[in-house]
Amino acid sequence: KINNLTKLYKTEYELVKALNDMTLEFPQKGLVFIVGVSGSGKSTLMNMLSGVDTPTSGEVIVGEKSLFSENKKQLFGYRNSYVGLIFQDYNLIEDINVYDNIKLPLEFLGINDFSIIDEVIKKVDIEDIKYSKVTEISSGQMQRVAIARALVKDSAMILADEPTGNLDSKNTSIVMNLLKEISQDRLVIVITHDDDAAHEYGDRIIAIEDGTILDDTTKNELI
Ligand code: ADP
Ligand code: MG
Questions:
Q1: Which of 88, 142, 155, 216 is deepest in the core (most CB within 10 A)?
Q2: How confident is the model at residue 38 (pLDDT cuts 50, 70, 90)?
Q3: Contact between residue 134 and residue 145 where contact means Cβ atoms under 8 Å apart
Q4: Is 65 helix (H, G, I), strand (E, B) or coil?
């Protein structure tokens, strides 16, 4: 849940209200799209939900707990294990191969059982490039590696910021279908400015403008 979330950015010349008193409740699972034009506050909202950045005022509540009242260690734990992040530019480590990129979150968490890696590799259909260098695969494959890396922690929530922003229509549909599939048993929140994709795949579409909610449409009732 987010309650009365406001984020102000102070720059040398101006004060930007990126989020303006926003209140929302998300379901436990399903595919929720956040749509809006560039500058509407989508990425700011994502950074608050992921605990990467702190709001100026208001709360992010996960379960019963208010995220930013947690101590640093708990917030770090939330970011590392509760949330899986996917970005437009993939954020893969180029010096290591596909398998090792997917293994990284487990290593950070101190998990020694790597058996889940092959499961997620199969799920996102990248068995053929398992040991390839990241620099030698296509952008569609890169995003599937990034999805596998987000999935390997088995986190309760996946946040994707413009995940298909650099992909052609074929790979956009592969990635959207994959996000749809993984939203069957967890919450997947996808930020996009692709309204058509949002309406094609989304269970719920939240439109934002100038840091406020413009429209909130549920297509499939979620729990
Ligand atoms: P979107 O992801 O929808 O394009 P953002 O959340 O990135 O929008 O930005 C919302 C508003 O906040 C924009 O006006 C943007 O210029 C401003 N903004 C975002 N990040 C910063 C920052 N670090 N410093 C100053 N202004 C920012
Ligand atoms: Mg953005």
A1: 142
A2: very high
A3: yes
A4: strand
